[in-house]
Target: Zf-HC2 domain-containing protein
Amino acid sequence: MCIDSQMLSAYLDGELPEPYKTQVEEHLEHCPACRKHLCDMKDLDERIKAASFSDEILLRNKDKIFSLLDKKYFEKGKKISFLRRRLEVSVPSLVTAAAAVVFIFIGGFMFFGTSSDQTKDILPSFAMQADSSNVHYVSDNDGLENYTLEEILQYLDSKGYNVDISIKGLQPLETEPAQN
Model:
């Protein structure tokens, strides 16, 4: 019984584990058909490696490859359409669709009317009026300028913050000389 191509391919690639590798080597010593098949696979592998391009060759010819792709697939005359299909709509169907939209809007206004009572049923509205009881100004809140540094530090300490303050330099306040 001969070895299948999958096992010979794994043997050729060096991926076959040891007990199977020894069995394949013993079989190849006695079976000329499998040896020929393995030899053919080696030749094919060498041809593929010889025919493949190296990164160096691809980098040298990169501009030529991109220009050929541009000419073949992205010519100025060709337009790329949505999902490779061109959307064609005839004029009568567009007119029919527009008439249907207009008919639906006019029918809606005729059915629901334009009175304010009927409009309240369709559109939500708000009855709350803006006055001083429900409008709060942000500027009414106290800012930090109304507190001393000591009060701010006490507040931060009560909230659990650890604050370190360093003073880089002090300039004495200029006071006016006392007049006698």
